[in-house]
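so im writing up the methods section and need the Putative LmbE-like protein record in one place, dumping it here so i stop losing it
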Amino acid sequence: MNKEMLLIFAHPDDESFALGGTIAKYAEQGVKITLVVATRGEAGKAAGLCKQEELGLFREQELSRAAKVLGITEVIFLDYKDKEVPISPSLEIVEKLVRIIRKVQPQVIITFGADGSSGHRDHRAIHHFTKAAIKLAKEFIEPEWGDPYILPRLCYVKAGWRLADNVLKGLDYIIEIKPWAEKKKRAIEEHKTQLFSQQKFEALDQKIKEDYYSREYFQCDFELSAFPGRGKDIFADMERVGS
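--- predicted struct ---
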């Protein structure tokens, strides 16, 4: 069985900061990984590396390099404006996502949880758009969007450094990433415009930083997953799919 993972996020850099180790791990195992990005992050800070009007293209190039480091197979931009995802055409966004889900047919989709990890409005919006698309993708509607597809597993990446230990221990998937920590670091470094975020991270407690490069955390949506689960392998039991 060919393994497919679909990542749906809001900005270039979300993938590297949030789950770079997990991406690198599964890419090394032969999983085909497709990344969908809602915006090009053009409303962020240029960090003196380019003109503000050039930032979208600059960040697209940063993501291209980071994707190569992590082993991402394909990057798809939805082309919405940074910081305006919640007020973008919702039905249009959902249609685009349904088409992608039906085409890729991933065993696993990963996106932000309802809190958006950092609370960013674009992060929270892409969570809800993704859930809507997963629900629609399995229905016998709009055949020109592709054949209906029932998603085996939906997971939300959780920001470990923001959560208490008892909450972390209760999450569904804890992925060990130490062997891929260097790739995660290299991918983050490719996002040079995110200097401020990198500096904030360096100021954190050493224990938090060690955990950040050792484990990544995920919550499984048991309602929208045909084959929900828990454990140390986000692809565990996928052999049941289609059986």
